[in-house]
Amino acid sequence: MGSQPLTTDKLYSGYRNPDIIRAYSHKIHQAAQDLDRPVNIMEVCGGHTFSIVKYGLDQLVPDSIRFIHGPGCPVCVLPQHRIDASIALASMEDTILVTLGDMIKIPGSRTSLQHARAEGRDVRFVYTPLDAIKIATENPHKKVIYFAIGFETTTPMTALLIEQSRQLKVNNLFFHINHVLVPPAIELILQQGGHIDAFIGPGHVTTITGTGIYEPFALQHHKPVVISGFEPIDVLDAVLKILLQLCDNKAIVENCYSRSAKPEGNLKAQALVSKYFETREDFIWRGIGTIENSAMKLRDEYVEIDAEQQFSRYCPRATQEKTSGCLCGQILMGHAQPKDCALFGKGCTPSSPQGSCMVSNEGACAAYYRYRRY
Amino acid sequence: MADRILLAHGSGGLENQCLIRDIFVAGFENHILSTMDDAAVVNIGTLAVSTDSYTVDPLFFSGGDIGKLAVAGTTNDVSMRGARPLYLTVAFIIEEGFEIDLLKKIVASMASELQTIGVQVITGDTKVVPKGAVDKIIINTTGIGELVCDCAVSHIQTGDQLIVSGPIAEHGACIFAAREEISVHGLRSDCRSLWPGIESLLNKKLHIHAMRDATRGGLSAVLNEWAEQSHHLIHIVENQVPISTPVSGFCEMLGIDPFTLACEGTFVLSVAEQDCQSTLEVLHQAGYPHAALIGTVMEKHAHPHVILQSDYGTERLMEYPSGEILPRIC
Amino acid sequence: MCLAVPSKIVSIDHEFCTATVDTMGVSREANLALVENNVEVGDWVLVHIGIAMSKIDAEEALRTLELHEELLLSSDIQENDPDGKSTSDDG
Lengths: 374, 330, 91
Ligand code: SF4
Known about the structure:
- The complex is a heterotrimer.
- By secondary structure, chain A is an alpha/beta fold.
- Chain A contains 15 helices and 13 strands.
- Chain A folds into three domains: 40-73 and 184-255, HypD, alpha/beta domain 1 (Rossmann fold), CATH 3.40.50.11750; 80-180 and 295-314, HypD, alpha/beta domain 2 (Rossmann fold), CATH 3.40.50; 328-369, no CATH class.
- Chain A has helices at residues 8-12, 18-35, 46-55, 80-90, 113-118, 131-138, 155-167, 182-192, 203-209, 215-219, 232-247, 267-276, 307-310, 328-332, 364-372; strands at 39-43, 65-69, 95-100, 122-126, 143-150, 173-179, 198-202, 225-228, 253-255, 277-279, 282-285, 289-292, 296-298.
- In chain A, strand 1, helix 3 (46-55) and strand 2 form a beta-alpha-beta unit.
- The N and C termini of chain A lie far apart (47 Å).
- By secondary structure, chain B is an alpha+beta fold.
- Chain B has two domains: 7-147, CATH 3.30.1330.10; 153-317, PurM-like C-terminal domain (Phosphoribosyl-aminoimidazole Synthetase, Chain A, domain 2, Alpha-Beta Complex).
- Chain B has helices at residues 14-28, 31-34, 66-80, 100-117, 170-179, 195-203, 218-230, 245-254, 276-285, and strands at residues 47-54, 60-61, 64-65, 83-95, 120-129, 137-147, 161-164, 208-213, 232-237, 267-271, 292-300, 306-309, 315-317.
- In chain B, helix 1 (14-28) runs parallel beside helix 4.
- The N and C termini of chain B lie far apart (52 Å).
- Chains in contact: A-B, A-C, B-C.
- Chain B binds chain C through residues 161, 177, 182-187, 235, 237, 240, 245-246, 248-250, 252-253, 255, 293-296, 309, 311-315, 328-330, and chain C through 1-3, 5, 7, 23-28, 47-49, 83, 85-91.
- Iron/sulfur cluster (SF4) binds at residues 326-328, 331, 338, 341, 343-344, 348, 353-355, 357-358, 365 of chain A.
């Protein structure tokens, strides 16, 4: 490594340097002028949606560039019946439901975990899934159910929890798996409409999976995919690289997040994931519908810890979603923006969300509500 | 005396008397309280009164404890109205089984905080409830003060400068970290009584239009409430808001917003432009070395809100705090 | 999706495969099972929900920062004020 070592300051402030941000903004304006046509860029990842809206990055690019906020929030895309399942499981006798904080407000068809907890159900929100082991060992006479959510980034963390709980012979810990996959969703979006010109690839998913999962989008669909981190400069850098590719009529997978994401990904994490999980035939995405092979489930060998199998009579079946005017589906597919929805900020707010895009921090509607209401 | 609080301590009998005499009257010693009459009689001018109840987990934290909080929190609200806090009423609701030693520690901490601001406890009450009915202890305090300077939201005007007295989010981050068992070097609650600083400000007769201490909901709650109640737009420059390194690291790590985290000894002032500089100077002298100008009160607006401007010129809303604060994965 | 924060390894407990990591002065424990073989004290890791998900490649981080700085030098930032929003400073 060169003479100057990496410091905290560089890792954080370095990627937020206002002068560099302005310089990128300037370059992007120039490149957009050269290109001279409107460009729709989808950020698949809710983390990017959050960064764009929070840092106001859309204010730094010309009007011809539109950010389309994709289905990249793992709790926003969970269908109501699976949220209902979490509540039903929490309501079983002698049961503790453990999950991550993001789940707290998500409304199912009737209620949310936060309400279930207020009604006396034992629902615990943990910072790390590994805490589930501690909860299970401290409550040997209770069933502890870990309600697992997240994209490819988070799946290995659930796998690690399973691995460790088996090593420690914890036998009262069960898993309800709701891990979803990015590529099938992108594929569906590409099949459904030609309105997206390029993708910003999710840096943390890629850190686990490697860059290969995006090749088909570049090769077959001729869409540039630029993998990016979450700091303002990361995202602007990705936008600039996308414009340059479009100017050159190129469509390749580029990696702007090389400090963390490697071409091969995290092999250890991948191995752990395939040890415990396999793809589901299909999974319903809230607001979008069924997407084939778009989620993970526990392998058959682990049926004894699979909450969906063990407590299947408690888990409600897929039902018709109640939508009542909510445009989430169209927003997740990139056909609408939050402000197009008549309910936005009126009938639908983060404290009483009507649709999934309003509930999680990363949902497009919630991000707009927090930072762009006026 | 037993080493734990029993239901009997709240039943009005002998144990109750002992508790009041040995712990409360002894701890809060003053001639009004020691009369032990049914009601305290005091005589002051225009009153400013504020009440609040305190529950905090953990009870003792870096920089303070529930007792200090119960004194500072309520007297701060009185100070913020431009009044000199003079008296406090205190009511304890205690869970059966609570350790008496802890109660003594809490009372001692209250007493020492009362002393620094010269406030007397003039009446009080104790209830003991069965185990599980409350989480350890709840303290309610009512502060009574005498109006010195009429500061109120309704006085906020276009062009006012907004000053914050010190680094924000210290209390919220400290409590959150303690509860989640996250060890953080240098995180310390800002819990303190504000009257001494406020007094030096009021003595200078500066044109302070409004003051509010940022408690739950943090800086964001104060500014959003001010925008809403005064119908003005508020403009804040993000990088002017003082935030300590451990707090920003903590927020970074958990993905939470420092603007919505609680403070307990930090306040916001809306000051006439011509007095902005002098206000800052007084604050810097009076124990608030990091007091900073953070923004401006803009024109009136039909949908008043708080705009946060980044170092690179973009703007967003300073969001209104809502819901439980939880670390997020996303 | 997936908030993950760069943190520096302060110490490693090999028995439990965990590390104390420092995020801007905030220290906490992180599990190292997914990055075990290739990290040591002083390295940077990306921590997602309490678990290190990758080692941060310091060389790459510095290299990209350099590229960003070069871009800054090559652009004529002075006359650049894209949205006409000059950064008005209240101070
Ligand atoms: S504003 Fe609410 S109802 Fe409308 S699309 Fe968004 S989440 Fe759905």
